[in-house]
Amino acid sequence: MKEVYDFLKAAGTYYLATVEDGQPRVRPFGTVNIFEDKLYIQTGKSKNVSKQIQSNPKVEICAMKSGKWLRLAGELIRDDRKEAKADMLEHYPELKKMYSADDDNTEVLYFKNATATFYSFTGEPKVITF
Who's near 93: CB < 8 A, 6+ residues apart? Predict the structure, then answer.
């Protein structure tokens, strides 16, 4: 999982795909964190992406860096604990202008049943599950 985290941090931007009424929805994200040995992302509960995840928690992330790319598929599980939100915001202090660990909008989610596959044009795919 640490290798997945490191790749996403180094890439800076990754793309999160969800589904809404059978239609794929993709948008850029940048938050990633490891908290209590789980890989987390962050968004706001008021956003459509949050509603899509709650309706269908199966998502996929794609990121690319230096000729290599990562596809991460799994389920996202909401963690409403203040500690999980606070830890994410400590790693992304610029988000404190919009989010708080105490508000009802901040949402952190962790991956469950995840499969990460690293690809390149020159090597065999590498698969990590967590």
Answer: none
> What pLDDT does residue 6 have?
98
- d(CA 99, CA 21) in angstroms, rounded, equals 28
Of residues 44, 10, 39, the one with CA closest to residue 27 = 44
Q: Which of 120, 115, 20, 6 is nearest to 61 (CA)?
A: 115
Q: How far apart are CA 39 and CA 66, in angstroms?
A: 23
pLDDT at residue number 116 = 98
Mean pLDDT of the chain: 98
Q: What single string gives the DSSP state of each residue in 33-100?
A: EEETTEEEEEEETTSHHHHHHHH--EEEEEEEETTEEEEEEEEEEEE--HHHHHHHHHH-GGGGGT--
In DSSP terms, which residues pair with 34 in a beta bridge?
39
CB 71 within 8 A of CB 61: yes
72-124 pLDDT tens trace: 999 999 999 999 999 999 999 999 999 999 999 999 999 999 999 999 999 99
- Asked whether the CA dihedral 8, 11, 12, 15 is positive or negative, the reply is negative
